[in-house]
Design goal:
The structure is a single chain. By secondary structure, this protein is α+β, with helices and mostly antiparallel strands. The protein is built from 9 helices and 16 strands. Helix 5 crosses helix 9. The chain is globular.
Length: about 375
């Protein structure tokens, strides 16, 4: 199968993975199945560590790690439009500068099929399969617009959180509990960038507003290394309930983390090499689709600013002005009646593409 077909199938599968999540409330029924259950017997009687101490232990492995660059192999398992089970694989390059900048390119046979990324204020998607085109939108705390227009379960900046490379803030911790088997700690925090924790009243901390997201981690109590990370849209919690899951909630996306990749320090102070998961397995509850991201050659090497600069990317990929669309316009057009279905070819929410281990946006296509 050639690279272009594979990338298009990857795009279709990513839409399949998230279509249910774009309908209000459809993920709530599945969230209890995928959520790590908190202990209800002996495990709840075990003391939990202090939030500050646990956060310090978690953050220690991330010292001196402000950015990463890694080769990525993306494997996808999904059912296509004909209900046939398929497996696809593409190669890519992942570049992240914490806390807000990400670039992910994916492709096959050395050809970049698409470029997916964000900076502190915008996100974008470049379709490079045929005539280069781009979609750009403004970031919002919950990422709803980005999820809808790109057809993904997560906004680009949410992927940064699912990689397990962002430090935690003790002030954001909502709860710490033992898992039902007493082997792991389940930590629930405010999701970065949605609602500021500093200066809030106690009453505000007791009840999240409807548009607030949470991040839930399952960590090893011995070293605070993450095994699972979830991005959660909470429901309404009954005032008299002691259970954090008493209201309906939606797990927007979850990552299972495995392996232990040491990051090669090229531009950071000497010392113990930071650690991060080698494999990131992303799912959306209720969907028969899986995305596995395997990372290798992880370094903190310098990354060209152009990798996260939308205007420079437009010039590099030679995207004509008429081929650039705003996300809000795309959503308005989707909601308006159309006289005929869209023609075949790339559509928003379709591709992802890359070069193999080339470094940044200024590698040749």
């Amino acid at each position: 199968m050639d690279g272009a077909v594979s990338i298009r199938r990857l795009a279709v599968a990513m839409c399949t993975l998230t279509a249910c999540l774009l309908l209000v409330g459809c993920g709530a029924a599945e969230s209890s199945r995928s959520r790590p259950e908190q202990g209800t017997t002996d495990s709840v009687r075990k003391p939990v560590p202090d939030a500050g101490a646990l956060v310090a232990q978690y953050n220690k492995r991330l010292e001196h790690l402000s950015r990463i660059k890694a080769r990525a192999v993306v494997r996808l398992r999904y059912r296509d439009e004909d209900n046939e089970l398929r497996n696809e694989q593409v190669e890519g390059l992942l570049q992240v500068i914490r806390p807000e900048r990400l670039a992910l390119s994916l492709g096959k046979a050395g050809k970049t099929g698409a470029w997916f990324g964000c900076d502190a204020s915008r996100y974008w998607w470049f379709d490079l399969e045929k005539t280069p085109s781009a979609i750009v939108g403004e970031r919002t705390p919950d990422g709803e617009q980005a999820r809808r227009v790109l057809g993904l379960s997560i906004a680009p900046w949410h992927l940064i959180e699912l990689l397990g490379i962002t430090p935690l803030n003790a002030a954001d911790v909502r709860s710490i509990a033992w898992s039902s088997d007493g082997q792991s700690l389940v930590v629930t925090l405010r999701f970065p960038g949605t609602v500021a924790a500093a200066g809030e009243s106690a009453a505000a901390k007791d009840q999240d507003p409807p548009d607030h997201l949470l991040k839930r981690l399952t960590v090893d109590p011995r070293n605070a290394f993450p095994a699972r990370i979830e991005i959660v849209e909470p429901g309404t919690v009954a005032p008299d309930s002691s259970r954090s899951d008493s209201g309906a909630e939606t797990v927007l996306a979850a990552s299972e983390l495995a392996g232990d990749e040491r990051v090669e320090l090229k531009d950071s102070p000497a010392g113990e090499r930071p650690r991060m998961p080698a494999t990131v397995f992303v799912t959306a509850p209720g969907q028969e689709a899986e995305i596995r991201l395997s990372l290798s050659g992880v370094t903190d090497a310098r990354i060209a600013d152009a990798s996260f600069d939308f205007d420079k990317l437009l010039a590099h990929f030679d995207v004509a002005p008429e081929r650039v669309r705003k996300a809000a316009e795309v959503l308005r057009e989707r909601s308006a009646p159309r006289p005929a279905p869209a023609s075949a070819g790339s559509t928003p929410g379709e591709p992802l593409g890359d070069s193999d281990d080339r470094t940044d946006a200024h590698s040749s296509r």
